[in-house]
Amino acid sequence: MRILVPVKRVVDPFSKVRPLPDGSGIDTTGIKFEINPFDEIAVEEAVRLREKNPDIEIVVVSIGSADCEEQLRKALAMGADRAILVETTHLFDSLGIAKELKAIVDKEQPSLVLMGKQATDYDCNQAAQMLAAKLGWPQACFASAISITGQMLAVNRETDLGVETVEIPMPCVITTDLRLNEPRFVALPGIIKARSKPLDRIPPSVTPAPLTRTIKVESPGARPPGRKVANVEELVSELKNRGALSA
Amino acid sequence: MSIVGIAFTPADATGIQAFAAALGLPFRLVQITGAANTTCGALKVLSAGLEDVPPADGLVASLEGAVQGASHIVAVSSMASKDVMARLAGVLDCAMVTDVVSADSPSTFKRPIVAGTLIETVEASGAPIVLTFRPAGYERKPPGGACEVESFSISPSKVRVTQAAHKSGGRPDLTQASVVVSGGRPLKDRETFESVIGGLADTLGGAAGATRAAVDSGIAPNELQVGQTGKIVAPDLYIAAGISGSTQHMAGIKDSKCIVAINKDPEAPIFEVADLGLVADLFEAIPAIRNLLGK
Q1: Residue among B118, B178, B222 whose CB faces A19 most closely
Q2: First vs last Cα of chain B: how many Å apart?
Q3: Mutation target vs A (from B9, B52, B57; most A CBs, 10 A cutoff)
């Protein structure tokens, strides 16, 4: 069985980002790049599933510039078997990514596509569901536990109300939520060893014109500064004055 | 142009009404769970009358026909809507915009990115446009006259729900509550969290929320996490107790009307954004607040 894990190169989620001076995008000067944290959870989960089911092959794929090799190498170091880099400067929106991933799926024929629920740069939460739609496969989003039984997967899904448990047949698309696992730390020897694992560079199969386009990126307006109150009495009376305790 | 709104919960209907009014467009409603809201101002309501939101594959297959002819297919941002609406956009092969906070035009939208540290203006082309929006910025109108209701049936899914999610406790929904009381790691354990944070939430008729750190350390259940990767809330009053105020947490609360921070550490970053800050031990301050409120 094969698991395909798409990984996105994103700005370090703990760095302070600013808009470019002309507002055309995010200023990435001096900013580190990482695997999207949710995709890292997906890689980790694939590796853990293989620990229980040794016949699993894990293929990671990234779409973007040659720099994405850095994130693919890390995924290989975590335990993925091989990597595909769709090397391109084309501007993809989530729908375009779904179409490109579909071409990879058609070729690689995985039983499971496991990917992050959202990327922490543009916070869209779309690509996996769009891919599932394009493939006509069922989906289970926001997984907090996954186990394999034959051709079925049992998945705990985080929902608005709590945790829902579902059975989903393969092939399918699953997205990872925060508490699925805690990704392992990869030490330097692992990263060096991963340099010898196969990484294929291929051109994109499709370059659809994006249907969504970033016109401007700007800093949000700051909230007006607040003030400190001296004690609980002042807090409660201030809240009463503001009508905030009417409920 | 016209809108089809997908209401995953009964409360979504009024949010959709407000969003449609802001765009100045008429709307039809597809209501997935609960009793049909016939006075929300929709031209027509298609009601599935379910108890829980069904798996996305079957639901999207049935929505495909219902959304025909719409220029915009919209839903209030939630985990359910992100699951379903993105699949719908994939099936319709159309543009999608997530977490819209305002519309500059019928095809230009503003939305937060990178945990709310930046605001992106997105232009969507083609039709229809699928979007999820945060209802905080939209004024809800009083109910209108009753409209026609039709029943809406859901196509079968390949996914079988073996155990439905059940909401714990009788508190209002986190994303819809007018008061939210949240706690961080200083709450120590589940019991303390429930008695201190849950207790104040109950006093105020509000919902309880938590930071990622509190959820990760088992102090609060997953569904209470507020922030970039959890729930986005925008209540009239948000009380953050024992919360330092990470960027990721702030992303989930900054549309709240009034933010109150209670923290022992006067240097906690939460004080920079809080409207009212109280430097105090939450274990003393919260019981004192409840006392003052006479409950």
Answers
A1: B118
A2: 51
A3: B57
Residues 108-127 of A with CB under 8 A from B: 117-118, 120-127
Owner of token pair 């200083």 = B186
Instruction: Show residues of chain A in contact with B90, CB under 8 Å.
Output: 95, 98, 129-134
Look at B90 and A98 and tell me if their CB atoms are within 8 Å. yes
Residue B128 DSSP class: -
Contacts of B198 (CB under 8 A, 6+ apart): B169, B171, B208
Tell me if A95 and B114 make a contact (CB, 8 A cut-off): no
pTM listed for this prediction: 0.92
- Chain B neighbors of A172, CB-CB under 8 A: 158
- Within 60-99 of A, beta carbons closer than 8 Å to B belong to 93-95, 98
> Which amino acid appears at position A211 of this protein?
L
Report the complex ipTM.
Answer: 0.95
**C-alpha span between B89 and B129 (Å, rounded):** 8
Token readout for B178 is 């007018």
Please say if the pLDDT value at position B152 is more than 60.
Answer: yes
CA B87, B91, B97 angle in degrees (round to 5)? Answer: 55
User: In angstroms, rounded to a whole number, what is the distance separating the alpha carbons of residues A8 and A6?
Assistant: 7
pLDDT tens readout for residues B95-131: 999 999 999 999 999 999 998 899 999 999 999 999 9
Contacts of A122 in chain B (CB under 8 A): 113-114, 120
Residue B135 tokens, joined: 């209802």
Give residue-wise pLDDT tens across range A45-65.
999 999 999 999 999 999 999
- Pairing, β B44-50 against β B27-33: parallel
SS3 readout for chain A = CEEEEECCEEECCCCCCEECCCCCCEECCCCCEEECHHHHHHHHHHHHHHHHCCCCEEEEEEEECHHHHHHHHHHHHHCCCEEEEEECCCCCCHHHHHHHHHHHHHHHCCCEEEEECCCCCCCCCCHHHHHHHHHCCCEEEEEEEEEEECCEEEEEEECCCCEEEEEEECCEEEEECHHHCCCCCCCHHHHHHHHHCCEEEECCCCCCCCCEEEEEEECCCCCCCCEEECCHHHHHHHHHHCCCCCC
Partner-chain contact A126 B292, CB within 8 Å: no
Residue contact B278–A231, C-beta within 8 A? yes
CB pairs under 8 A between A and B: 268
